[in-house]
Amino acid sequence: MMASDNGEALIPRHPIQVLPEGLANRIAAGEVVERPASVVKELIENAIDAEANNITVSVKKAGFDEILVSDNGWGMDEEDVVIALRRHATSKLRTAEDLQRILHLGFRGEALPSIASVSRLEVLSKRDDREHGIRYRVDGGTASDPEPAQRERGTTIRIRTLFYNVPARRKFLRTPATEYSHIVKVFKQFALAYPEYAWTLEKDGKEEYSLLSTDQRGRISQLFGEEAAGDLHPLDHRVGEVFAAGVVGGKSLFRKSRGDQFLYVNRRPIQSASLHHAVVNGFGPLIERGQYPFYVMNLRLDPEEFDVNVHPAKHEVRFRDEGAVYRAALVAVRNAFGLSLRAGDSPVRAPLAGRSDRPGQERSPEDGRREMELLLGKAPRQPQPVGDIQSGSHIGHGQLPPAHTPSPRGSSSHNALGVPTPPPRPLESPDPRREYSADTPPENAANVTSQVGLSAVDESPTSVARTGSENEGLSPSPALEEAGQRLNVWQLHRTYILSQTRSGLVIIDQHVAHERILFEKALAAMRQRPWSGQRLLFPVEVKLDPAESNLVEELVPSLARMGFEVEACGSHTWAIQSVPAGLKVRSEEKLLRDMLADYRQEYDVRLEPQESLAASFACKAAIKAGDPLKLEEMNSLIDELFTTEYPFVCPHGRPVIVNLTLGDRKSTRLNSSHTDISRMPSSA
């Protein structure tokens, strides 16, 4: 018991007792009825549950003075009305099992009695099978006798002087303008979720919205205008038993503030920071930091797969498999823009991942190879499959493989990634860019563009500015292809790889490209064949905190399959025995610590341990922006990218490739906001 300085009790001692019903209802109202918009939400949900298809919402002074919701649903008789105003009275549930499969928006039976305890409430309702309707009034929790009244089928609920008997709560309400904006938000949420219904919103006797029955695009046009409806991309994707449907807006609908994001589960409006993150992540480079997209997304899944009984106002839900729900939302957005990218509707011409060209079938590495060939032409040599764990990427974090030494003519050689290449053949004529071959010192190769800039592209015999038949000479000669060389490849600012194509220019982010390669290698190692480890001469001991140590203990089997072998050697101390074969790292300890830190964040949004670990490993082990690459190393990176399943995005949704066509030069400049490569973030 707390006491004051003079020893007196600050909190008086009283025996435990049951709260009076009126006080209990006011406490419950504090959880359910936060503001006038909360009342509107609860009454709209009741109308929808009553199978109404014409709903009117009318407010006076932003709901401070009056809130009225009228519908043409089932209606109630005298007995129903009286019972409906009692706590925990509902027609939605009968048994405990029903709670595991909620099919209605409301089910607790708390809304009406809670609202009635803090307002003056009037119900006017009529059923089809009754001669007249019924009027029932409750004033601050005190009910009057029901009386006959005239009305067509349906229900009208009028709320006056909300919080009149709880002045402290009324003082916490915002200005009428702010409270009304919350009401409009609720109205739009339900109007978008049920476009086949007719909706009306009135403010102080003036009609604000009168929405006739329509489809989703029509409803968006009614609420946001024809221009908004003209920049929509359909959402339609399935992950397991989770369906993501709806629309997402294009760049013209990006805003600097929140407001036009509408998320539903089985048409129930919800709030979810995780799913909002999935949607934004799906936009990848198309959206800048600080911008908010427009979307209307409905996730459909079995009611037994989520729990809506986790929030007093039912704003949030808990999913049994949140990872599947997250991926459905993420890939649905990627697919929406992947379709438009293929159609040429977006300034970024590379299709995003997650979309199969063969409906009903999974993607395969062949899909990625085919898409890459459309941009870069056929690979000049047979690339080594990603799944072949005997040849991990030799491009590493902070350390490059030894420089390539030319082999004697007639003998075979290996490039920087260990991929065998045939001996070079003599060329009929020298290539002006031959000086930037594999024998060029790294510092010179890395600074090609600093020496000659993009003029190396513009002034060469294979200039991208050339058109027509001259473009037929852009691809390497057969001798170069057989030699396993792409000579029209440059590194820009030690961050981007540029490659001239028949139709323009391809820009590859070296970090995210390598990240995609390592992600698929690691995932294949954990799911199929283990990645062989490269034993360290001296084990590296790492002292972790208890949380990190417990995490490592959980991940030991998966790490081992990736070739990352760790063993416990004391209290929260682990010894790194091996790292994935072919991977060059500056610090094994830093790599492990970074992976653990990143894994926690990955797992929060993916909820799939293997994918989270693979993404964390790939991000931390991949080459970084600023790492110089020689010509053969860039070619090897491109070749390995050929073999991945989704070559166009990294595991976090960032683009790997931007394709600028010759047609873009007429309307889009390289440094414009549409194709600015600075918006291809490399996680250095």
Provide key terms for this protein.
single chain, Ribosomal Protein S8, Chain: A, domain 1, alpha+beta, five-stranded mixed β-sheet, nine-stranded mixed β-sheet, Ribosomal Protein S5, domain 2, 684 residues
Write the layout of secondary structure elements.
Blueprint: H1 21-32, H2 36-49, E1 54-60, E2 66-71, H3 78-84, H4 111-117, E3 120-126, E4 133-139, E5 142-143, E6 147-149, E7 154-160, H5 167-171, H6 176-193, E8 198-203, E9 206-211, H7 216-224, H8 226-229, E10 232-239, E11 242-249, E12 261-265, E13 268-269, H9 273-283, E14 295-300, E15 306-307, E16 318-319, H10 322-342, H11 365-376, E17 413-414, E18 420-421, H12 442-446, H13 448-452, H14 455-458, H15 478-482, E19 489-492, E20 496-500, E21 504-509, H16 510-527, E22 533-543, H17 546-561, E23 565-568, E24 573-580, H18 588-606, H19 609-621, H20 631-642, E25 657-661
Parallel strand pairs: 1-8, 12-14
Antiparallel strand pairs: 1-2, 2-7, 3-4, 3-7, 4-5, 4-6, 8-9, 10-11, 11-14, 12-13, 15-16, 17-18, 19-20, 20-21, 21-25, 22-24, 23-24
Helix pairs in contact: 1-4, 2-6, 6-7, 9-10, 16-19, 16-20, 18-19
